[in-house]
Specification:
The structure holds 2 protein chains of 2 kinds. Chain A contains no helices and 11 strands. Chain A is mostly beta strands. In chain B, the strands form 3 sheets. In chain B, strands 2, 5, 6, 10, 11 and 12 form a 6-stranded mixed beta sheet that branches. Chain B has a 4-stranded antiparallel beta sheet with strand order 3-9-8-7, with no helix packed on it. The termini of chain B are far apart. Classes of the chains: A mainly beta, B mainly beta.
Chain lengths: ~120, ~120
């Protein structure tokens, strides 16, 4: 079945360490996204990418980095520069085409806890 | 700037009663509106969307939403609530400032629906 796979589901990190969250999709979607979810704040966009080797900063990109070397993969690195990294991270993807109506497909999320 | 507001942090309803989860939006052009549902420690699942046409949109699991342009609202409704409907619900609007097919959705803060037996 097609879908989006995020790993790991739970991750613990010590302060000062970088961590990378994996996101893989087999939906043949061009666009991929990373959102951060905090209680009571909804979802905030970190980075998004429409095509391979191109990505754009979202609303809260500071302290994060991404790469898009393959269409299927969009890993997110949470760097030590991110001041408050404890959160639930959601990866999503969508088609990109003329008149596209914006439906996103989400992975199951990765919960990062900084100790 | 585009924005979405969900004025209620939580909605409580008895099983079998109708439910409404409210959403209002602000966009500079025609809105593309969405509802998603999230169960604990899971990703978001798409429920329904409004792009154009009939103001009453039907979606998954018996949910529907009514688009009201004059009130800039897109409330989620269901005629008869189930305990299994208890979850976190998000309204979202497409950022029409993004050209060429980007699907940058702006999400509301979410409303927790609690359906009691």
């Amino acid at each position: 079945d097609g879908g989006i796979t995020q790993s790991p589901k739970y991750l613990f990190r010590k302060e000062g360490q970088n961590v990378t969250l994996s996101c893989e999709q087999n939906l043949n979607h061009d666009a991929m996204y990373w959102y951060r979810q905090d209680p009571g704040q909804g979802l905030r966009l970190i980075y998004y990418s429409q095509i391979v080797n191109d990505f754009q900063k979202g609303d809260i990109a500071e302290g994060y980095s991404v790469s898009r070397e393959k269409k299927e993969s969009f890993p997110l690195t949470v760097t030590s520069a991110q001041k408050n990294p404890t959160a639930f991270y959601l990866c999503a993807s969508s088609k990109v085409e003329s008149g596209n109506t914006g439906e996103l497909f989400f992975g199951e999320g990765s919960r990062l806890t900084v100790l | 700037a585009q924005s979405v507001a969900q004025p209620e942090d939580q909605v409580n309803v008895a099983e079998g009663n109708p439910l409404t989860v409210k959403c209002t939006y602000s966009v500079s052009g025609n809105p593309y509106l969405f509802w998603y549902v999230q169960y604990p420690n899971r990703g978001l699942q798409f429920l329904l969307k409004y792009i154009t046409g009939d103001n009453l949109v039907k979606g998954s699991y018996g949910f529907e939403a009514e688009f009201n342009k004059s009130q800039t609202s897109f409330h989620l409704k269901k005629p008869s609530a189930l305990v299994s409907d208890s979850a976190l619900y998000f309204c979202a609007v497409r950022d029409i400032g993004q050209p060429g097919g980007y699907n940058k959705l702006i999400f509301g803060a979410g409303t927790r629906l609690a359906v009691h037996p």
